[in-house]
Amino acid sequence: MEVRAHARLVIQGQDETLPGAFGPGCVQLLKGIDREKSLNRAAKALGMAYSKAWRIVNEAEAQLGRSLIERNGAKGSTLTDDGRRVLDAYQTLQEEIDALVSRRTPELFF
Questions:
Q1: Residue 77 burial (CB < 10 Å; 0-12/13-18/19+)?
Q2: Residue 32's closest CA among 78, 70, 66?
Q3: Do residues 77 and 33 touch, judged by C-beta distance below 8 A?
């Protein structure tokens, strides 16, 4: 019997009292902001309320201690340099974790 495993990466700051974290949902939202150049349009594309998207980004920024997006009012939003670095780093780590889990799962389970 073939088995598969998946690991979900979540990045969290040292202050465990802060809400939220940086994980797959925030990654999808940041990718949407990068594509749409708008937090509002990115939220709509994901079927998410703008207020929820705003909260996700704010909580991730608090956890990481970095500004992830630049809000330009009516002009929209773009990723900051830190936002792009965090997104790229997350994707790299997730790819490496996925490769390790894929390789090790059959070795450990059968």
A1: buried
A2: 78
A3: yes
